[in-house]
Write a structure and sequence with these properties.
This is (spotted green pufferfish) hypothetical protein. Keywords: Membrane, Signal, Transmembrane, Transmembrane helix. By secondary structure, the protein is an alpha+beta fold. It folds into four domains: about 1-160, Immunoglobulin-like; about 175-245, Immunoglobulins (Immunoglobulin-like); about 250-350, Immunoglobulins (Immunoglobulin-like), CATH 2.60.40; about 380-434, no CATH class. The protein contains three helices and 30 strands.
Length: about 425
């Protein structure tokens, strides 16, 4: 009884281990460091893989199937194994090897040998008579009959080919031409370099070493990463440099602007659009009016096009003639994207439209201003006259020429207020008649 229980436990444990092995995750093991070879030699790219070979009846994979006596386990098989150059899923017409009978690229025919056999999970590849053009990133990819799951993207392994055993060679992956924001890998090797060799990277636009490693991964590259790179290998007291590896980081149009000439009033105007892009903009598309709205579908509007000409490092420009006022916009585009800039041409006569509230307020404001000026001038004139009338000299003149005047005041019509508030004297008073 005890022996039977132990045997059953061992069988359950063995079944669980087997099911866990069958339900493995997707994986490809290749060297993390670049593989170095000499022109004319043979090189092996070591490789092994694994994949989910089964799932339970619920369709779950990546873990052990459900432990249900009545459960069904579905087995998955390999349909195709392949090697390609520089594509993370091997969606390319340029195969290095394909197990489904697809012929390799002509440059590899008769030079490759695949070591994989059914059930071995060995995916190693041998390349004979290595050429300089064989340098690059090699990717292994697997296709199974699973209805939904696919192998994830693969980074691959870099192969660097040197002209001689003592030469230093460098390579960029996935390519020396990369789009802004992507990841760039720089690799350096020499067939003669030992395990104790030191690697140092220099950039032509910088001062001093930039990275001390055989492989330099640059994430989210920018235009500042463009330029030349040199790898130096230090073996003991000897140092040897590679040739210059030129990196070109491409980006969509930016700093797009429109200049208007002449600066004065009057049609027509010349509109010049300029932009910084890599690769450069070849043609500028021009629109006007509603087509310049951010929400507008420019494909449904007619466009004028102007050929771009060089206008400095990385910049181009194109010009058109504008014979209408309103909004005008230009679209700068290359294979990585586009950028739009808008300018408004406004007629001098349209700055204050006739009949607007602003135009009606102008004459009203002028009239009110003139009226206030007249009132102020009249007040000033009357005040000056009254001050003159009631000055001490004027009273002295009255007493001199009218000795009978006793200094009393008479209030008659057309009087002036006394600034001192002590008396009022009429302008037509007999006392004022001299």
């Amino acid at each position: 009884m005890e022996v039977e229980a132990r045997a059953r436990s061992c069988w359950l444990l063995l079944s669980l281990c087997l099911k866990c092995a069958l339900a493995a995750d997707w994986s490809v093991q290749v060297p993390a460091s670049p593989v170095c070879a000499v022109v004319g030699s043979a090189v092996v790219l070591p490789c092994s893989f694994d994949f989910p070979q089964s799932s339970d009846r619920s369709g779950a994979t990546g873990g052990p199937p459900a432990q249900d006596d009545g459960g069904e386990v579905r087995q998955y098989n390999v349909l195709a194994e392949m090697w390609c150059l520089g594509n993370s899923r091997c969606v390319t017409p340029k195969y290095v090897f394909h197990s489904a009978g697809i012929l390799p690229h002509p440059s590899y025919q008769g030079r490759v040998e695949y070591f994989g056999q059914p059930g071995t999970k060995n995916c190693s590849l041998k390349i004979s008579d290595v050429r300089q053009s064989d340098s690059g990133t090699y990717v292994f990819y697997l296709i199974t009959d699973h209805p939904t799951e696919k192998m994830p993207e693969q980074s691959g392994v870099q192969l660097l080919v040197a002209e001689s055993s003592g030469a230093v060679t460098v390579a960029a992956g996935p390519s020396s031409r990369v789009a802004e924001g992507e990841t760039l890998r720089l690799a350096c090797c020499s067939p003669a370099a030992g395990p104790q060799a030191g690697y140092t990277w220099f950039q032509s636009t910088g001062v001093g070493p930039r990275r001390r490693a055989q492989v330099w991964d640059i994430s989210r590259v920018t235009s500042a990463d463009s330029g030349g790179y040199v790898c130096q290998i230090q073996s003991g007291d000897a140092a040897q440099n590679s040739t210059v590896l030129t990196i070109d980081v491409e980006y969509s149009p930016r700093s797009t602007a429109i200049s208007v000439s002449p600066a004065g009033d009057g049609l027509p105007f010349t509109l010049t659009c300029s932009s910084d892009a890599n690769p450069p903009v070849h043609t500028y598309a021009w629109y006007r009016g509603a087509a310049c709205l951010p929400s507008a579908d420019k494909s449904s509007h007619p466009a004028r096009r102007s050929k771009a000409v060089p206008a400095g490092v990385g910049r181009t420009q194109g010009a058109v003639s504008a014979e209408e006022y309103g909004e005008h916009c230009c679209v700068a585009r290359n294979r990585h994207g586009s950028q739009t800039h808008t300018v408004t041409l406004q007629s001098p006569r349209a700055t204050t439209p006739p009949g607007s509230s602003e135009s009606r307020l102008v004459p009203i404001g002028v009239g009110v201003g003139v009226f206030l000026l007249v009132v102020v001038a009249a007040v000033c004139l009357i005040t000056s006259i009254c001050i003159e009338l009631f000055s001490p000299r004027r009273f002295w003149d009255l007493q001199r020429y009218h000795p009978k005047w006793d200094g009393s005041k008479e209030v008659i019509e057309n009087t002036c207020p006394d600034p001192t508030g002590t008396m009022e004297l009429g302008l037509s008073s007999p006392l004022y008649q001299v």
